[in-house]
Amino acid sequence: QVQLVESGGGLAQAGGSLRLSCAFSGRTFGNYTMGWFRQAPGKEREFVGGVSWSSGRSYYANSVKGRFTISRVNAKNTVYLQMNSLKPEDTAVYYCAADQSTVVLTTPREYDYWGQGTQVTVSS
User: Could you tell me the pLDDT band of residue 1, with boundaries at 50, 70 and 90?
Assistant: First the structure.
């Protein structure tokens, strides 16, 4: 059974940076595409970005493109979400997710495994 544990959330000022981590365990990390999602109060969970296990390529939502970067370190079984130039609208609970798809999936229901989430709050 795959287990995902996010960390690194917290409070940041607008324009600041945070780095989230997602630790993977239970299966072979290198065989899983990893996604990041976020959910703000009263809103649906939305795709932030993801990285494919087969190609190593990352894909991003337009709202974060150029500001957020996803990377994975297979030797550490960890995927990271570096968030720069943060905006108040980035405030949400951030979740990592895993799936064995070869491509990055962008809808939550397509992912098999989820972490518990970590809160990110950006003040103006």
Answer: very high
